[in-house]
Design goal:
This protein folds into 2 domains: 33 residues; 55 residues. Helices cover 65% and strands 0% of the residues. The longest helix has 33 residues. The radius of gyration is 30 Å and the shape is rod-shaped.
Length: 98
């Protein structure tokens, strides 16, 4: 009777809902699939916040490396020109020499 009909309707809606969820899961898997040239370190990232954190960390490392390189170049110039009095006042790695 009525209970059997309701049970059949529930089964049908469950099957439809399962299909919809499987489609959504497939879409999510394809969106989360790594790109061809994606580094292995990026495979574990699952959120925007994680990606932003990695980008920030890499940016800090780049700045640190550039700073080290600049300071090393200044030190080398001082050693190479030890007989001269080099003025390093006002120089900086982000300043342009004109």
């Amino acid at each position: 009777g009525k209970a059997e009909k309701e049970l059949e309707e529930l089964k049908a809606s469950s099957v439809e809902e399962k299909k919809n969820l499987e489609v959504k899961l497939g879409n999510l898997k394809s969106v989360m699939a790594p790109a061809k040239d994606e580094p292995a370190s990026a495979h574990r990232l699952t959120t925007h916040a994680e990606l932003v954190g990695v980008i920030k960390s890499l940016g800090e490392k780049v700045v640190s490396g550039v700073t080290y390189g600049f300071e090393n170049a200044v030190a080398q110039m001082k050693v190479a020109n030890s007989g001269l009095e080099l003025s390093t006042e006002g120089i900086g790695m982000l300043k342009r020499v004109v």
